Amino acid sequence: MRKKSNTKQNKRLSIVLFTFSFIFISLFARLIYIQGYKGKEYYERAIRQSEIKIDLTSNRGTVYDRNNVALTDNEKEDIVVILKRNFNLDKEKIDILKKVTKLSEKEIYNKFESKSDLIELKIKYLNDELRKEIENKSAILIVNKTYRYRSENILTHVLGYINKYENKGVSGVEKAKNNLLKDQNKEYVEAFVDARKNVVPGSFKKYKSKDINHKNVKLTIDYDIQSIVEKALDKKHKNGAVVVSDVNTGEILAMASRPNFNPNKVEDYIDSENQELLNKAIQCKYPPGSIFKIIVTLAAFEEGVVDEEEKFECNGYIEFDGIKIKCWERDGHGEETFKEAFYNSCNPVFVEVGKRLGSKKILETAKRMGLSDKVDIGLEEEKETSLPKGDTVKGNAIGNISIGQGDIEVTPLQVNQMTQIIANNGAYKKLYLFDSILDQNMNEIENHKIEKDKVVMSPFIINRTKKLMEGVVEAGTAKNIKGIQGNSAGKTGSAEYYVNGQKFVHGWFTGYYPAKVPKYAVTVFVYDGKSGGGAAAPVFKDIIENINNIKQVQAQ
To answer: d(Cα 548, Cα 555) in Å, to the nearest integer?
Structure first.
């Protein structure tokens, strides 16, 4: 009996010891986890709860254009920062603030009704006497603040924007290079409060991080050309997108989307139905319409199913396999050669040529010319194209495929890549946006690796098509932009598109300049522009003429 009793006691003792050991080990492990792994996070949380802070910079690296023009963090101004709870707003101080800020007494009181303990006021006037008066007051500082984005809201869709509370990139360059740009160049005004929420004496002052290993991003964008593009879109009140690239290098010199947005007030656009936050150059896909006739032409010349002088008859429409495709010219173009059909963007003729080719050949050519995969310029928002496949390429689908309609959808960036290949006589140079990474002294740390050119189309076939594109400007659907010094070449497009049963007709023009020795490839897309010749081609002309103007000025 005694043995059984001892055995039971030993078992109980073992269970108790095991339980206490388990609890002790668990608590010890938790303590190590909190102090070690989570210690820094909890410490930072405690600090944040005891600090009052205004950032004086974006706390991010700077983004530059190709010529080292700062695209971010370049606008600065003096401000006064006031620690509200320690600042007795008497008549003397109100008078000083009125002189410095040019605000009325009522406006100043309204500012002090803010929930924030730190009040930020812009300085409108400041002389030496007022500066001394302010510096002799407690709980007020004069500091210089740097704003992340330019007030002109330029290159907004490419740069993107940040979540201010987390200082985290949400879109564009800000998102793509967030890990490189974040937590740099820190300057701020700060005050600490104790457990009773009283300000710790001497803690209200300006701070600056000691980290000098800053990293910055340099883009291929040309600020002057970007400004020209955005002004051209705004002047003509166009909703759409433009891409300008350097034919010889593949560098993207400008990229703009409309409607625009203010990156300092992103919250105003979150629930908007106007698509301000979408980068239409890379983020939206549209039917290419008649600019796809470039692809059909390349395939037709390569297969030898047509030549420039072959004659066709256009009576205003073509019927086959139970469908009817109309020409934009109501009564048709009558008798015309293939090259004239290209100039005129004649649908019936291209459907006829498309039937000779077949869908497979046309779509294979589209893939070779960059209209299949993403260009992949490093921005996460970029969309892949949509080309028909499976049963959607069979039967009478060739009608829509031949004129760039139906299931074909592309981005303006992809169209620019296609245009760049044509301007380069069939050589593919991959478009790119990121030039290099710079240190705090503007020295290059890392640069873009340029891919080797590859020939994707015979120069002979390309040059025959280029002559037709010159004819579009000289005598075809874009003759309204004829006369640009140095001449240009391109193709117009008008693409039907339906959203919730509502019909839109988008306008395209994609081309290059100068015509004989191309330097720039320019793609213009106008949302619901009705026609490429009427809406998009004039934007192209405006851009090229203004680029010529600034280049002439720079050369002087």
So the answer is: 11
Cβ atoms of 472 and 343 within 8 Å: the answer is: yes
Give the whole-angstrom CA distance, residue 290 versus residue 537: 13
pLDDT of residue 46: 40
The DSSP code for 58 is: -
- What are the DSSP calls for 172-231, one per residue? HHHHHTHHHHBS-S-EEEEEEB-TTSPBPTT--EEEE------EEEEES--HHHHHHHHH
**Could you give the CA distance from residue 111 to residue 106 in angstroms, rounded to a whole number?**
9
Low-confidence winner among 162-176, 209-223, 247-261 (lowest mean pLDDT): 209-223
3-state secondary structure of 269: coil
The SS3 assignment for 535 reads helix
CB 262 within 8 A of CB 268: yes
245 token code pair: 């690239």
Please state, in angstroms and rounded to a whole number, the distance separating the CA atoms of residues 297 and 320.
21
Terminus-to-terminus CA distance in the chain, angstroms? 114
CB environment 61-75: b (16+ within 10 A), e (fewer): bbbbbbeeeebbbee
The mean-pLDDT minimum among 14-18, 249-253, 363-367 falls in: 14-18
Contact 145, 137 (CB under 8 A): no
Q: Which two three-digit tokens encode residue 10?
A: 């030993």
* Tens digits of residue pLDDT in 42-72: 434 444 446 788 899 999 999 999 999 999 9
Q: Which residues of 376-387 are buried (b: 16+ CB within 10 A; e: fewer)?
A: ebebebbbebeb
For residue 242, CA distances in Å to 129, 480, 504 come to: 51, 19, 19
- The pair of three-digit structure tokens given for residue 29, joined into one six-digit string: 């492990």
Instruction: Taking each helix axis as running N to C, give the angle between helix 293-303 and helix 459-475, from 0 to 180 degrees, rounded to the nearest 10.
Output: 140
Q: How many Å separate Cα 477 from the centre of its chain?
A: 30
What are the structure tokens assigned to 341, written together?
Answer: 């059909």
pLDDT digits 0-9 by tens, 416-437? 999 999 999 999 999 999 999 9
Q: Which residues pair with 143 in a beta bridge?
A: 79
User: From CA 341, how far away is CA 490, in angstroms rounded?
Assistant: 14
Question: Encoding tokens for residue 299?
Answer: 């395939």
Rounded Cα–Cα distance for residues 411 and 144 (Å):
42
Residues in the chain: 556
**Burial of 5: CB neighbours in 10 Å, binned 0-12, 13-18, 19+:** exposed
Q: How many CB atoms lie within 10 A of CB 79?
A: 21
Query: C-alpha angle 347/353/358, rounded to 5°?
Result: 115
Q: What is the pLDDT of residue 8?
A: 59
State the DSSP string of 272-341.
-SS-TT--TTTS--B--GGGGHHHHHHHHHHHTS--TT-EEEESSEEEETTEEEE-SSTT--EEEEHHHH
Residue 416 burial (CB count, 10 A) = 28
The pTM for the full model equals 0.88
How much is the pLDDT for 202?
76
